[in-house]
Amino acid sequence: VGDQLLEALAAAVGAGHVLADDDRRARFEVDWTGRFRGRARAVVRPADAAEVAAVLAACRAHGAAVVPQGGNTGMVGASVPRGGEVVLSLARLRDLGAVDTAAAQVQAGAGVTLAEVQAQARAAGLDAGVDLGSRDSATVGGLAATDAGGTHAMRYGTVRARVAGVQAVLADGTIVDRPPLLKDNAGFDLSALLIGSEGTLAVITGVRWRLVPLLTSRVAALVPLPSLEDAAALLAAIRPRLATTLHAADFFLDEGLQLVLDHDGLPAPVRTRTPVYVLLECADRHDPTPDLAEALEDAGIADAVVADDSAERRRLWRFREGHAEAIAAAGIPHKLDVGVPLARLPEFAARARDEIARVAPGARPVIFGHLGDGNVHVNVLGPDPDDDAVDEAVLRLAAACGGTISAEHGVGVAKARWLSLTRPPGELRAMAQIKRALDPDGTLNPGAVFDPTAG
Ligand code: FAD
Ligand code: 2HG
Ligand code: ZN
């Protein structure tokens, strides 16, 4: 049966695009964090939507499950096989259209990276409206499938807000593609349903991406602060003042800064170290520096490090964006991307530390995130990758603080067991019904989002 599956896949995409040997499959079988891995039956690399449909038909016919994969930068283990699935790589769907400046849209294949969308948009005087540290690898398909957030979500929303339409292949081979219209109310919005569905409802083959104005005047400020309470108060003070220019407000703590400094061999960005740092960035058509400086001064901030040229801004961002890499170099972390109401973020961070110490004495928490979105990345180094005690404790706490167990990375396989902490039974039932309707055989990404052990 196995050979027949490989033959059917080869007939669908060409034998050269079916990777069955151990060494050619290897990089598709482990996730970016190193925590999740599994053996794939094969890795298959279709070139277009028709080939994707043929792959799905072959897998259905042979009872093989499918794990869609884009840039494999996901952080919840859902882009790699659990064991025996076919990995469907969308990396060859790389068509990138010319920017339609009148509509402020661009058509991108699922395998186009975020950096490529950004470059294409900027060359036409527009911008992608989304930015994140994995920009050079994360793909349009993966970004839509996870409804990624990133550093500009406080201004432009998550990827959902950037999508004018999605092209996709359903599990039964149906190709979904609506005309490129901003307004299209003729029936259910299937694109909206697929965004954030993490490869469980359909395979996304392309996205019509909505662009935003290109704002080339930018300024960043790194603000050292005594506490997260001060960070939340700072944001509350400056946000109304900078309502039209502020596009990023991230935070990290001194322990995370130290990790990045050690990893990169960099000097500290401030003379006097403090427990908390907030990294703000404003963007506008005209220089936003005076407005930011005035807002900070009025908020009582005297010691911010302000960067108004791009090299200096990149230097400041490295201290924040370098966290994921520096943590990965220190071990295999448990990554708990949660969201809490901003007013409860300081309480959550303090209690998370206590909970981690309680269930995993000696574990090393690294806490940072997107302050403006109440999005906290709790990374925990130390516990065995298979030991879920810290995951459970932190996710329960996020829910108890009125938050969500996943702000931007998704549920994946990492958090499927705990989805009921933040979604009531009726909603879980509705989700399961949608899954059954669109993927009755359970071909697409089994084990992701839906708890496979639940009844
Ligand atoms: P993959 O990792 O390949 O897949 C992710 C999920 O989407 C899987 O469930 C997969 O099955 C599904 N999928 C992928 N492609 C398709 C498709 N074409 N059709 C259907 N399903 C598909 N995320 C944020 O939200 N904000 C951040 O700030 C952020 N920063 C990051 C920084 C670093 C250094 C790294 C490594 C990751 C970061 N991420 C961030 C996480 C990650 O980059 C995002 O989740 C991204 O959207 C994943 O895209 P990908 O192409 O790598 O998808
Ligand atoms: C970020 O904001 C990413 O840097 C990664 O979302 C978060 O590594 C993490 O936990
Ligand atoms: Zn993030």
Name a few traits of the molecule.
single chain, 455 residues, alpha+beta, 7-stranded antiparallel sheet, 4-stranded mixed sheet, 15 helices, 20% strand, binds flavin-adenine dinucleotide, binds (2R)-2-hydroxypentanedioic acid, binds zinc ion
Q: In a few lines, what is going on in this structure?
A:
The chain is an alpha+beta fold. Helices cover 33% and strands 20% of the residues. (2R)-2-hydroxypentanedioic acid binds next to helix 12, strand 15 and strand 17.
Q: What is the β-strand count? A: 17
Order of strands across the biggest sheet?
A: 14-11-13-12-16-17-15
Count of discrete alpha- or pi-helical segments spanning 4 or more residues = 15
Major sheet: size, sense and barrel closure? Answer: 7 strands, antiparallel
Bound molecules: flavin-adenine dinucleotide, (2R)-2-hydroxypentanedioic acid, zinc ion
SS strand fraction: 15-25%
Structural class by helix and strand composition: alpha+beta
Poorly predicted regions: none
- The 3D shape can be described as globular
Average pLDDT, all residues: 97
Query: What Rg, in angstroms, do the CA atoms define?
Result: 22 Å
| First-last Cα distance | 30 Å
Helix proportion of residues, in percent?
25-40%
Polypeptide structure, described:
The chain is α+β, with helices and mostly antiparallel strands. It has 15 helices and 17 strands. It has helices at residues 2-13, 22-25, 49-61, 114-123, 140-146, 153-156, 190-194, 228-238, 254-264, 289-298, 310-321, 323-330, 345-359, 389-400, 425-438, and strands at 18-19, 42-44, 66-69, 86-89, 105-109, 126-127, 163-170, 175-176, 202-210, 212-213, 217-225, 246-253, 276-284, 305-307, 334-339, 364-370, 375-381. The strands form 4 sheets. It has a 7-stranded antiparallel beta sheet, sandwiched between helices. β7 (163-170) and β8 (175-176) form a beta hairpin. It starts with a helix and ends in a 17-residue tail after the last helix. The mean pLDDT is 97. Bound molecules: flavin-adenine dinucleotide, (2R)-2-hydroxypentanedioic acid and zinc ion. Zinc ion (ZN) is lined by residues 370, 377, 408.
